[in-house]
Design a protein that fits this description.
The strands form two sheets. Strands 5-1-6 form a three-stranded antiparallel beta sheet, with no helix packed on it. Strands 2-4-3 form a three-stranded antiparallel beta sheet, with no helix packed on it. The two termini are 18 Å apart. A hairpin with a 5-residue loop joins strand 3 and strand 4. The chain is built from four helices and six strands; from the N terminus they run H-E-E-H-E-E-H-E-E-H. The chain is of the alpha+beta class. The longest helix has 13 residues. The protein is elongated and about 65 Å long. 27% of the residues lie in helices and 19% in strands.
Amino acid sequence: MWDKIKSFYYDFLSTFVPKRVRYKVTGSCKKCGKCCQDIRLKGADDEKDFKLTQFFIPTYRRFIIKGKDENGDLILACTLQNPDGTCSVYEKRPKLCRDFPKKYLYFNGVLQEGCGFKVEPEKKFEDYYKKHLK
């Protein structure tokens, strides 16, 4: 009986766990350049809007549209990449590139296979669980 009460109590508490999980990015860049060939912009799903953005913000003209992902968002590739995967205009790269990957994310970011960075939840499920077990 006591186990059932505890179970209901924990189920009740779980409704107050924030739905937005904060993720941390660790590791370092291996300079492979894969991320420059598979740039995914969440919410960018209209090719005409992207072309308009390129018209008004010349920095974005370096990107071409490769296709769309499973959510319909655009997949971009950079045209200013050296054959070895490094950036040919590294000192003048746009903020989008300078900030990649952000130190903290609010979604589970997708990184290329073999990337030197790792994305993991800042707080693991066990941390929430242990807090309420006491």
